[in-house]
């Protein structure tokens, strides 16, 4: 009998980790510290990979210069091959930069919204920082578009390498094997096999112009986007994978219940979300019910459903995707254009 009671006590002491609410503050801070160390390690790893890619590009350019100008008989398209390699490295670095920003976003979120408030008495972290962090962990998305990463890395590092290659290629055409100022001779030298020189020069100019355009766009469009009309912004949202920013995952919950006061209180206290109460009448039963409206994040939906189940098992919950939610606890209102 005593043994059975002991087993019951042990079973009662077991904690279901899936239902844990981190009532122990020390355990929660310890878990966040370990998460912070892990995200710092990831960010440092990808930062090292960024530097390695840049080093590859620099070494490639330096080696090609040595080969191209060591003899007048060496062909000019060696420099064009080096340009293709540098563009390949730029593509790799842009991809790595997006991963680096993903980990850096989490590190910055922990530093500014969790650790920094701990240093201020009383400790008051932002109400929605955990939602943003959980959203990034459950549904990772790059905080920057691919074309924007290309533009930024080109401005920071690769503009100098590409400029040196293009200038060296032009000098090779005009100087080797003998100096010339005749444009026809330069066009003849620029030819690569059956491809005419004018086509090669136009292709190089198009590539360089495209890089400059993407670089300028990545610099100016974020500022312009804040002043664009709403219609243009909506078109940009549907413009495909080149547009920056993760997709919003806000939800609008509609709860029909006969325990509106208690359920609204729990939602406001446990989820830190505002609730709007309406009065409705069931057309089948004729009973008066409370209709609660609440905007929540995708991460909070399971907790909202659990609150509804515990408070009123007979409640009716409808969760709909929201196109956009702005206000306290979500994205701020943008100034009018």
Structure characterization notes:
The chain is of the alpha+beta class. It has two domains: 25-237, no CATH class; 250-321, 2-Layer Sandwich (Alpha-Beta Plaits), CATH 3.30.70. The protein is 61% helix and 9% strand. The protein contains ten helices and four strands, in the order ααααααααβαββαβ. The chain has helices at residues 2-13, 25-68, 77-118, 129-138, 146-175, 183-190, 197-225, 230-237, 260-271, 301-311; strands spanning 250-257, 276-281, 288-297, 316-321. It has a four-stranded antiparallel sheet, covered by helices on one side. Strand 2 (276-281) and strand 3 form a beta hairpin. The N and C termini lie far apart (76 Å). The model is unreliable at 1-20, 225-233 and 235-246 (pLDDT under 50).
Give keywords:
single chain; 337 residues; alpha+beta; Alpha-Beta Plaits; 2 domains; four-stranded antiparallel beta sheet; 10 helices; 61% helix; 9% strand; disordered N terminus
Topology:
Elements: H1 2-13, H2 25-68, H3 77-118, H4 129-138, H5 146-175, H6 183-190, H7 197-225, H8 230-237, E1 250-257, H9 260-271, E2 276-281, E3 288-297, H10 301-311, E4 316-321
Antiparallel strand pairs: 1-3, 1-4, 2-3
Helix pairs in contact: 2-3, 2-5, 3-4, 3-5, 5-7, 6-7, 9-10
